[in-house]
Amino acid sequence: MEPITGAEILVRCLKEEGVEHIFGYPGGSVLHIYDALYAQEDVQHILVRHEQAATHAADGYARASGKPGVVLVTSGPGVTNAVTGIATAYMDSIPMVIFSGQVPTALIGNDAFQEVDTVGITRPCVKHNFLVKDVRQLAETVKKAFFIATTGRPGPVLVDLPKDVTISKTEYHYPKKIKLRSYSPTVRGHAGQIRKAVDLILSAKRPMIYTGGGVVLSEGSTELVELTQLLGYPITNTLMGLGAYPATDRQFVGMLGMHGTYEANMAMHDCDVLIAIGARFDDRVTGKLEKFCPTARIVHIDIDPSSISKNVRVDIPIVGSVPHVLRSMINVIRDEKLRPDAEALALWWRQIEQWRGMESLRYRNSDAVIKPQFVIEQLYKVTAGQAIITSDVGQHQMWAAQYYLFDRPRQWINSGGLGTMGFGLPAAMGAKLAMPDQDVACVTGDGSIQMMLQELSTMKQYCTPVKIVNLNNGYLGMVRQWQEFFYQKRYSMTYFEALPNFVMLAEAYGHVGMRIEKPGDVEGALREAFAMKDRTVFLDFITDPSENVFPMIPSGGGQNEMLLAERDEMVSTHEEGMVLV
Amino acid sequence: MNNNNRHLISILMENESGALSRVANLFSARGYNIESLTVAPTDDPTLSRLTLVTSGNEQIIEQIVKQLNKLIDVVKLIDLTETDAIERELMLVKTKAVGGEQRAEMKRLAEIFDGHILDVTDSTYTIELTGRGQKLDNFLRAVEKDAILEVVRSGATGIARGQKALHA
Predict the structure, then answer these.
(1) Shortest Cα distance, chain A CAs vs residue B31, angstroms
(2) CA–CA separation, A289 vs A559, rounded Å?
(3) Could you give the residue numbers annotated as active site of A?
(4) Sheet arrangement for strand B5-14
């Protein structure tokens, strides 16, 4: 076999992994790789305008398709720019493989031009990383990287490639399979634990199912729906888990947590058996830990043992992949013809319906000023609930999560863990590339959108038509909301005295811009925008600057201590809560 | 339950550059204590054995063990505190040894603690001691404070008693 260069080996490895798109930005240390990419057509390279966008776009691509996102950046600033996106993917367990250029091995440690300790900088925010020092190890390392990124609890894996490694030659051999003695995630749940869990679940008088992003990541939605409907239990999803259970189904009680529905949080608080599936008891979900589900015995299914009993002690832990474990549970229940306590369940549902009757997501609409919630409702209506929605971070993110009813997994794409402003636009571009036949909308705000605006240029180059729904209130709304509630309305640095003309800006990038100021124009504008199938449209909705996100559990509060829009006067939280953020 | 107990955790890991950093990084990133840490390759040169002493309540130790296991480079680990184990630490102590009385006293103390004098000058002794941390502490307490010139401790390492063995 003819020896080929490291760069050629890398490109051949990508083909073997079925990689169709790679998001990146060239530079000195990766020139050889770019030369190898130039000579082929199987892997399409998307040239972003900033390395952070490369990682977010690859992330959105992965979340929409389930396939790993692939990134290529140069050494030094190429890597440091990418770190935010890598950390974003890490916090949400997104499969991603990042290839970074590095100075030649002989120069490593010499403070060479565009040198940083990439492996060191990224270590805390990757599932694993590698520095390839010998071209003979390259192919195997790439195989390992994809294997680690996509199995178990997924996550980003970085491969650092010194320039000389991409130039040196060796014979190409790509291993078909890889086995790591130190890494073998548990897929099947322990039969004894599953049996115990089923018994506890069926003994419940006030059961609650609480599921997270793990159901989406593991493709466990089918099993989740089957089990939930078999049991007839109420179900809530976390911000990351939305879509895993259809939001339009009666058993779904809405999202839970800080901005969750009244019925979801009250049912969590009062339940006697909690079934946690692919969720990690994040602080935005639990509120004050001492007040979390005080009467519940807890079953927790997760592929990552370290997620279990990390924040909340659980009674029956099951380590395994969600679809496998749920299938086993369904089999036990069906085979033994087990039934839940129908009488208790009916009573429990009566209680939940009473809570639901509070209509905690009700808001006062207006004829004069556009309410942001109204825009999301209209977006839902115009897209018939079928679009892929990405979001940035802030109030608009919560409204999108609350008012767009997601009926299928991978439809809702947002930075839940790290909360990265700027995520939405490049993620929408990545999602559109992965799913070209689906409508993609990016719900954003005037703060977030300005963090990754330059990607409008990339979107023009690669014709990725996305509808940008900008809820423009002139404020960093979520921070302003906290300042209103907890800092006696001292709006420190949350008002933008200057904002660009987003319509002209969109047009400058070659897209369509629309400014919408009246509630009566919202639906029409959305219809017009979505009718332009092949254009990116920037819809700049001028919304009520004083609107707040409700319900809200103030920091330090328990799940049953929600503030509702029309019921509660917001009061300062106690000091203990202030430090909880 | 809430007692901060001392734990001796022994880890078999890939002998690769960066593996040690991953362990150290994990402890600092998650705010866990490391009291001591010792690491060296094993008889199989592709593997390293790392032993660390940490402390925390039951829940923290459970998380530490889980988080360590999650590191891709970690092959296996054992919490030696949970099993019947031998624990040893090496200490080198340089002491003053001036005049007949002090030299005799130092030599006698070293003997009592099963130590060896490795280096002798006209004014110093360098003594080697091994044992559990407690024993080394006791030796230092027994020696007159002004006489200690330098102390070097390896940190604790350990191995399970009996048939139990950690291998890849």
Answers:
(1) 13
(2) 10
(3) 51, 113-114, 163, 478
(4) B36-41, B47-56, B5-14, B74-79
